[in-house]
Design a protein that fits this description.
Layout: H1 4-22, H2 26-29, H3 33-37, H4 41-56, H5 58-65, H6 75-90, H7 95-109, H8 112-126, H9 129-138, H10 141-144, H11 149-159, H12 162-169, E1 176-180, H13 187-196, E2 201-205, E3 208-211, H14 215-220, E4 227-229, H15 232-241, E5 248-251, H16 258-266, E6 272-277, H17 283-293, E7 298-302, E8 316-322, H18 346-360, E9 363-373, H19 382-391, E10 395-403, E11 413-420
Parallel strand pairs: 5-6, 5-8, 6-7, 8-9
Antiparallel strand pairs: 1-3, 1-4, 2-3, 9-11, 10-11
Amino acid sequence: MSDKKIGTRYACYDILRKIQENKAYSNLIMSNLKESYGLDQMERRFVRSLVLGVLERQMLLDYILSFFINKKADAEIQLLLRIGLHQQLFMEVPPSAACNETVKVAKAVFDRSRAGFINGVLRNIGRSEKKVADALESAPPHIKYSVNESIYKLLNEQYGDKAEKILAAFIGRKPLLLRVNTLKINTIDLVEKLVRRGVEAEFLSETTVTIGKGSSHVIERLKKGEYFIQGLGSQKAVALLAAAKGQTVVDVCACPGGKSFGAAIDMENKGLVISLDIHEKKLPLIDRYSDLLGIDIITTRAFDSRQVYPELVEKADRVICDVPCSGLGVISAKPEIRYKSVEDFGGLYQTQRRIISSASKYLKSGGIMVYSTCTLNRHENEEIVAGFLADNNGFELVYERTYFPFDEVGEGFYIAKIVRK
């Protein structure tokens, strides 16, 4: 495994095998590529691209393979076939190289007969452009975009013609987005600093920078506390909250802390942010990153926000209510969600109803609560808010919006602004 080319493909195979066998999350397992596989920066970029590509097109890859093999191969052989096929069809890798490098890994981990089988299948596919094109053309929508059929049906029922556009937007990588810590640096100065270091950084708004090439350098400099990584949907939710200095803000499902940080920065680090989360072990991450950002108004408390925290009743000017959700709006970042069934989401609805009900009790008269999710599912979004308002006459919906992954936000996100009368 000393050859670098074998190393990158072997790393992909090993990572995908661990994801398949251990139900591991791709973002966690690929967080230490340098240490785990000894890969340089360019190799790590290739591995991430190939692993995520296979994950986001897995059903389509298997569908195409079904035209060339009589029955699905055993799990590990199927993994290598997906790796080779994805390179042939969706990456700028010559078919012969994709085949040869994949077969090298097969020879290293299997016997020669299985390596020969992989070689034969991939070379046959490489010679069969029309057959591949016909397979791509015939794929049903849920196969074409590699999502559980129940997810496609839900999106189609709720969003109609937008469904395929939504799913198409989940293919490929999204730019990295930074929320600027204006307590330490203004956005223009940060962009200039990053550009001087060779990063593709662009000014998006007074508080947001978008990153192209150079994201690894950006991640390495997180400890400077000049910014943190946050999607644009979450940033818009915090902006809608309109937290001001001197106010009290309660964040009911706070971890990993981005919305609490954003509110504290908007408050100019003056006032109080109470960050609640059921996962006590995660709260020290908020404390440590608050220190890096130079924020000292955040206090963390372990609490199950399905319940009511008595000491906070009618004490908050603002409430952040970003609830646990199905994550259908961030499939591009979490490809494992593609293969879940809608039936898996049923238990979330009751949790969401309980959290919004409890969170609303913290608001003072005239206070604002922002309810948000990173999903595209009206059962978790509009219907939760409508149900809450039907049961609580003292509140008014003043704004709501669903963002789609093909618009300026780049992900699916729902935001509702609710005011206590």
